[in-house]
Amino acid sequence: MKFLLLGGTVFLGRALVDSALAAGHEVTLFNRGTHPDVEYPGVEQLHGDRTRDLSLLEGREWDAAIDTSGYHPDVVRASTRLLAANVKHYTFVSSKSVYADFSQPGVDESSPVATVTDEQLASTEQMQPPYGELYGPLKALCEQAAEEEMPGRVLNVRSGLLVGPYDGTDRFTYWPVRVARGGEVLAPGRPDKMIQFIDVRDMADWIVRMVEAGQTGTYNANGPVGQLTMRQFLEQCKAVIGSDATFTWVDDAFLNEHKVGMWMELPLWIPDSEADMAGFMLASVDRARAAGLTYRPLAVTIKDTLAWNQTRPVGPRRAGMDPKREAQLLELWHQPPSA
C-alpha cells in the first residue's frame, strides 16, 4: 500500500513510518520541515504548511492517509476535502481529551464529547496549536470534519498517553530516569492508584494493521484499563534497571499543600481531590482490543525508553521534578509534626 503521513517523524510519526515500512508499504511524508525528518531510504519527503498550501498533494494518489498533525477542524476539513478523490482511507489521530466528563471510570467511544461555543471557535484565529484548553473539543470537531468530507472511510483513533522512545514530553520518561538515578524517590499519592498509557509502537503497529484491513469508526487506543498501579510501575522500573532506589510515598494532601504540579511536575500523578479526573486513566479500550490492539511487555518499554534517553543531550526536560525540590520536599515530609 501507498501511505501518506501528514505530520513529522519526531515521535508518533517515527513509529508509524517504522511500522509501515516494516510491513512492506511505501510512505510519503508531508510536513513543514520544522524538525528534521528521520532519513529513511525510499521515503518521499514533501515540505509544506498544510494550514496554508496543500498544492504539493494535488493530483497525487495514495491508498491511505494518516493524519497526526490535525488540531483545527478547518485545517482537517481542507486536507480531507482535497484528498477525498484520491485517497481511499483516512486515519485521524485524535485524543481521549475529546471527552466531556472523566469523573467516572469506563469512558468509551459512546461517551459525550466536549464542545466549543462559536465565540471560542472564533478565538482560535488568534491562537497557536494545540490551542490550550480547547485542544480536546477541537479534536472532536476535527473528527467530525474528516467524516463529513470522507464519509465511511475514516478511522478515528482517540489516543491515550503515548510513551516510549523519542517521547520528548518526559511525562513517562521521567520515572525510569529518576529510578535509574537511585536513592530515595518521592513517589506521589496512593500506591494503588491505577495508571494508564500505551507504548507508541504498539499504537502505531495497530493503526497500520487497521489501515491494511480498511477498518473505520472510532476507537480509544490506550493501555489496559485497571491493570497497573503506580506502585507496580515504579517497582518494575526498579527491577528492570537494577536500581537501588527506595520509594517514599507522599500523600496528596502534602503535595497539594506544597503546590506540586500534577501530571507535569510529577508525571502520572493526579490527586484524588481532582474528582472530575477520577476516570482519566481508566478509559475503556474494549473496542480496540477486540479489533486487535496488543501490548508489548512494560519491561521492554521501560528499558527502551531509558536507552533512548541516554542518547539525548544534557539539558532541561519538559516534565519532572527538579532534584533539589524533590530533596526539599522529602526533608519536609520526614519532619515530625509540630506539637
From TrEMBL:
Q: What taxonomic ancestry is recorded?
A: Bacteria, Bacillati, Chloroflexota, Ktedonobacteria, Ktedonobacterales
Pfam families found in the cross-reference section: Epimerase
What span is annotated as the signal peptide, if there is one?
Answer: none
The record places domain NAD-dependent epimerase/dehydratase at: 83-220
Q: Please state what the protein is called.
A: NAD-dependent epimerase/dehydratase domain-containing protein
